[in-house]
Every structure is written in C-alpha cells, then in structure tokens.
Amino acid sequence: MGKDILKYMQEESIQSQGGIARAKSLTKDERKAIASKAAAARWNIPKATHEDRPIKIGDLEIPCAVLEGEIRVISERAVTKALGGKRGGAHWLRMKEGGANLPVYLSANNLKPFISNDLMMALSPLIYQPKTGGKANGLRAELLPKICNVFLKARDADALHFKQIPLALQADILIRGLAEVGIIALVDEATGFQQDRQKAALAEILEKFVAKEIRAWATTFPLEFYEHIYRLNGWPFDPLKTKRPSVIGHYTNNLVYRRLAPGVLKELQAKNPVIEGRRKHKNFQWLTGDIGHPKLLAHLEGLKIIMRESNSWDELNAKAERHYPIIETTDLGFEIEVKPRK
Asked: Average pLDDT of 109-124?
C-alpha cells in the first residue's frame, strides 16, 4: 500500500512538472487565449467573433460586436452615454418592472406607456466575451431604433419631464442617423462582419448552382437560341455549322450565365478555365443537376420568348435587362442591379 501511494505521488509530481514546463513554453498570447477560453467555458457566455471599430452616428461613437450565431450587439454603457445618461451595464439589473429588466434611461414611470410589450421583453442585458477577453454588457443592435422611438413618442404626447428633453434630442439625432444607414449594416461594416457574411451568402449560392464534379455532356442550348443571335445581328445562319464566332461566347455569358445568380459565371470560369485558347468543357456541365441546370433551362425558355419578340439586338438587350436583371453583391453585402455589358 505504501509503495502504491509513493508511486502515485511521484506520477502526480511528474505531471505537474510537465504542466509547468508546457506553460513556460507558451507565448503570452497563447496563455491569454487559453485563459479566455477557460473563462468563457466557466461563464458559458457567447463570444465575439467580429470586432473592429465603433459605429459612428453623427458625432457619437458606439462600440459594437458580432457574436456567435450572428448576433449584433452594441455597448449598453455607450447607449446610455449617447442618450445623456451616466450609468449603464449592471445598473439596469436592479431596475425590474413586471418581470423585465429596464435600463436606467427607460426606467422612469412616465415612459412605461410608450414601451411596447415586445421591446419590454427584449430589453435584457446580453453578457458576452469580447475578443480581448473579460466580460461586456451588450444590447441587441436592432433595439436601438425602438429605444429612440420611446422618447420620440413620449415627446409627441407631451409626456416628457423637462429633464428628459435632452434625452429626446439625442434620440432624435440617433434616429435621423439610423434613417440613412440601418443599424445592422452599421454594425456589420464597423466590425468587418459584412465581408464574411457576403462570402457565406455567395458560397451558399454557388454551392447550390455549381457542381463539385463535371456532369456528362448533353445538348442544353437549343439551336433556336443561336438562330436568334444571328438574326438580330444580321448575320447569315447555317444550322449545319458548329463553329461559331468567339463573340457568341461573350453574348452567352451576358444573356445567360451572368443572369442566373450572383457570382455563378465567375465560379464556372474558375472551374472551367481557358487552357491553350479554349475551355475543356462546356460551362453548363458544371451546373448542379438539382438547381443549377433546371434554372438554366427555365432561363433559356424565357429568353427564347423575348428573342422571338425582338427585332434588333439592342431591343433584345433592353428586354433582357428588364426581365432578367443582372444582380451582383457589393462589398457591404448589398444586392445591386448591374447594367449589362453588350
């Protein structure tokens, strides 16, 4: 028994020494990351995935973050300050009314009639871990306009106390700033999350449209499609000739692939690059069988209709732009209509 105890103590000592040695070998940043991870596990709170700089509304700056699960938050303390208050964070935990927590700037009794039930239930402090570690009190970003409207409604009803008038003025400034750019877009731009959001949205589209492996070749573009291109450009058409002018490829990209979905043409060209002056496969062979290819066939059927009704190349392009506009995604993740290249 004594030998067993001695052996156990020796093993424990060796393991402890190993842990100490490993800790000494870690860099300062590595030790900090391990400590933050352990703290987050203890607290069981969401972590910030994106933080960069504060959002700016007029002269105001409000720290913000995007948390796990794409939850946008803004600093509760900064909102309090922006509205002219002096306290924030844990203070509102003591302001309970009807089972809901209220921040100090909304705790006055004369404001209660202007706080909707939805806002009342949503106004709970969101504790999270910033990327730098520790804990922070956040407020869901989409609540900021609703909070501002509480003061504006109370002002319109002439229900404000004279000490609350400055808060209403600040709320007016905030709401005017938010009217120009949405709060979600502001948070995404400030934290850098819009880049990842755009990539994720585009990746989801491309995964649906573009296949991972080449599909078997099958006649997809009807002869009528090419016949109309020749007719509208005033070219003689020979259905027996398979070799066509290279500009036909540019016309096909513009009329068809650029209009299927954002980023599809670029992804198809990456999958099917030009090698020694030509592409090894047809672009449509890289479309998925369940979404990409059916969408292409449906698009071609609609395109043939407006081709038949067109009497010139310019008329066809104008109708294509009206019925099948080219949609692309900006760096901020907004979808915009793009004027096509002819």
From this structure: 85
